[in-house]
Structures are given as C-alpha cells and as structure tokens.
Fold each of these.
Amino acid sequence: MELLRTPGAMQGWADARRREGRRIGFAPTMGCLHAGHVSLYGLLRERGCDAVAASIFVNPTQFGPGEDFEKYPRDEERDLAMLGEAGVDAVYLPGVADMYPEGSRTFVEVDGVSRGLCGEIRPGHFRGVATVVAKLFNAARPHVAAFGEKDFQQLAVIRAMARDLDFGIEILGAPIVRESDGLAMSSRNKYLEGPDRVAALCLSRGLFRAERLFRAGERDPLALADAVRSEIRGEPRASLEYAEARDPETLIPVTSPTGRVTLLVAARVGPARLIDNITLQEGGAQ
Ligand code: PAF
C-alpha cells in the first residue's frame, strides 16, 4: 500500500494508473475508520475498480467555531492497518498546509441541497465539504468515488457538485452500516460512553418505528417524521435538532402522502452530535 502525502504525489499515482488503463476507485475519509468505511472499498472493487485509493484528512474547513475539530478522534496507525486489510492500494494523507497553503481563497458552494437540515445547523459545513472533496477529486482523479449514505445530505451535495462541475466521476452511495443494536456506525460514536451509548439508540429506534408505521400503511410524511421526533423527545439524554421527511433525490420537504420518502434525523446525545436516516419506499425500505 502506497502512502502519498502531497497533491503532486497523489496525482502522480493516479496518472500512472490511468496510463495503465486502470479504473480508479476512491473513498475519502477523516480517519477513525469503522466497518462503514471498509464497506466503501469493497463496493469500489465490486464496481470494477482495479486501483483503489483512500484518503485520511480531518478537514478544518468543514468544522464550525466551537465544533470538535481539535478533539476529532485520530489514529493513523490503526486506520492504515484497516485500509491495508481492506486491500486498498494507496492512501492519501495530506497535511493541512498541503491542502490549504497560505493564500488559498477558492471555495465550492453547492446551492439548494446544502440548505436546511445540517446546512442550517452547521453554517459553512457543506462549503467546507464540497471544497475539500473537489480538491481530493483533483488529487486522486478517480473514475468512481464512494460515500456512505449515513451522511445523506453530504452525498446529495457531492452528487450535485460532481454533476454541476463536470467532474466526470461516478458517485456511489453505500448503505448505512449499523452496530448489532441498530446504532449507525460513525467515528463520533467514540464520544459515547455508558448511558449516552444506550441513549444514542433513540435515533435508530425512531427511524425503525417510522419504518414499521410505513409498512403498516402510514403514508403521511409528517406523521412519519413525528414518530421519529417523539422517540427522541422521550429520551432525556438526547436533544433533538431535527427530524424531517424529504424527497430522497432533491431533499425538498415532502408534505403530502408519498410512497417514497427519506426521514433524516439529527440529535445531540451527551457530547456527541449524531445523524441518521432511512429511505422508505413501497415494496420495502432501502
Ligand atoms: O464524510 C466524511 O468523512 C467527510 O465529510 C469527507 C467526505 C471525507 C470530507 O472531509
């Protein structure tokens, strides 16, 4: 597994693979890897990528003031061991000064899907995500890139950016990977201890409750979102940020009965800010 630390080194690796006619798959991360990340590299192989790259970069521009940039969990050695085991061919590990040299002043702003939900609660977050992902794409020059569906709005933002800026990269969404008790895997689960870990289950419990209602015939998106909300409100250690019903493609709020809807939830539980979602559609949940 090759370790590359500058944009030039990463581009050199990608250009050499492209010259050999290889299909490059790429999944960027902020490290602190879990099975959800590992699934992305398997998906890229399944989709025919024969040169697979990862990146580990805790991106300062997507954290707001007072957020967890400084304490975001970092463990490069363990991450590299996991990526090696996952069969990744190259890992891009730039430093902050490599990504944002003195005088950097260009940002990518994706209108529409960046608004509302996490975009409202974390102003500037998706501008930081879109900017860093554009830069990572320009370094890794992939044919295909994979992102987890847990960050559903992020995935929509990246899809829009890749399309609008003609990146020519196929964007794949990978299903949420859950712990055996239902908690969506996230690097931020590291912040959850004891009773907070138990309380964190209110997010998935709320979504699964809405899923049961949907299966029993409930099609009112507001009633489905209410089911999620009331589960979170019933958990004293949790504080609800939002629980909303949105169109899975456009993320526009849906208010009238529908056979296909994504429920998105965000809540604080102890020191952690957690997000989760589920897409419900006639014929089964996705
Ligand atoms: O989902 C993440 O881990 C990050 O937001 C990403 C896409 C790697 C950009 O920093």
Amino acid sequence: MPLILDGKALSESIRVEISSYVERITSKGYREPSLAVILVGDDPASHIYVKNKRKACERVGIRSLFFHLPQNTTTPELLDLIASLNSDENVDGILVQLPLPTHISQQEIILSVSPKKDVDGFHPENMGKLVARIEGGFIPCTPLGIDLLLKHYGIDPKGKDVVIVGAGFIVGRPLALLMLWRDATVCVCHIHTKDISIYTKKADILISATGVPHLIKEDMVKEGAVVIDVGISKLDNKVTGDVDFERVKDKVYAITPVPGGVGPMTVTALLLNTLQAYKQNMDLKDESF
Ligand code: GUN
C-alpha cells in the first residue's frame, strides 16, 4: 500500500491552529484578519472555488469581503475597485479569481494589486522574491500547499529529480521556482514537450498540473516515486485527477488522492497567506501562531 498524502487531514489540523491564533489575537482586542475576494462573471467552476475559499475563511475567523462583478465589467472599473481595496487599511488580502473574462487585461490587474496584499503571490514583486529566494514574499497557494504537504510527510525535495507536468502561471512555473529553492533538480514539461514520458519516468517526485484526466499512466511513473496530482476534472461523471490513481498507486511510495489531496492544501495556503498579510499589515511580528 502506498503512503496516501492526506491533504484534507493536514489542512484540518492547520486550520485548527489558524482558528486558535485568530481567537487569541482578537481576544486581545485586535480586529479579525480580512480577505477581499473578487469574482468577475459567472463561470460555474470559479463560483465553486470562490465559495469554498470564502467558507474556509469564515470557519477560521477570517472576514471575507465578496465583490461579485458582472461579466461586462471593464478593466478601468476593476482597477478602481482594486485601488480602493489597496488603500483600505482594514483589508489585508486581495484575491482576484482567475480566469478573468478575455476583454479584461489579466496582466494589468495582477500588476495593480498591492504586493503587500497579494495573497495569490502573482505580482511580479512576489514572483521575483521566489526567483531570488527572498523570504517574506507571498508564495502562490498551490505551490505553497504542496510544499507544506511534502514537509509534513518528511519528503525532502533536496537533490531529488522533480518533474512538473504543466507550465501554467498559477501552478507549474511558480512550483518549479519553489522546488529549485528547495534544492531539487527541476524539469518542467509542457504542451510542446515531444514525449513527456521520457521525463516522468525519471522523476523521484512527479507533479502533474494539467487538468487532463488520467494523463499519467502506470508505465510513465518510476517505481517508488512520490506522485502529486494537482489536476481536478470530471471523467465519466466522477471527479478525477491527472493521474490514473488506481493503476499508479501500487507502484509508488506516496501519492495524493483526488479529491482530498492538493485541493484543500491550496485553500489552507490561502488562509496562511492571508494571516501573513494581516500580521505584516498590523505589524504583529512577534505574535507566533
Ligand atoms: N484560479 C484557479 N486557481 C486560482 C488561484 O490559485 N488563484 C486565483 N486568484 N485564481 C485561480
């Protein structure tokens, strides 16, 4: 039997700690941490993600402010909202759910969020800190969640061959930088890679973030590897990941389930980033959590 990397259980225990930190700090008279969540349009998947994030905030005592804007919102209108949240000292974190409608400039929006409130870690200032290994920046939530999960199970990427399938802006690329920070040898496969199996077979730690159900088959995975599945999609009406879990699981040392693996860790990482933003905003350096 492989080791199941239980993101749901780890998330729950971290959220209990966050909750008791918030209780402790608010009982001293400080206001609660707050996160502004912006959703533009009516993409059903985005609605579900945002609902989960807000629910998770409220359960640990983080106030969530929700801004649901219509599909036809313009870039200047969205920029105005972000500017007002940037200057509101009672707002610690700002999250603009992606993808945005195509008529809005994603790049302009990402650049407009104050790096101090950028709990997604998407602003170039925070991405730059990840490149330069500068502590104190925000690390994007899914990479941070995976890092915490590996750490919890005593899996150290140092000196390992880490292969990432998927080079997206939200997961693959920042994760490659984080794994480099952890001293792994990193290989990133993407849509133009001729044959991903050449690389996946060599991976000590294989991380797939493509959203292609069952892309990773048994013969593409090394015996004893650690497999992290970031994908979440539907196959035959069942929630499934990028990895053919049932066939791959008996071959590996450890594997994340879908659901219950990376997904909850991403949301927990968002809560941790919001707490970090709060502590920096309120100058609560000495308050350990
Ligand atoms: N869409 C999919 N994943 C994410 C994420 O981590 N943050 C934001 N803002 N949008 C997303």
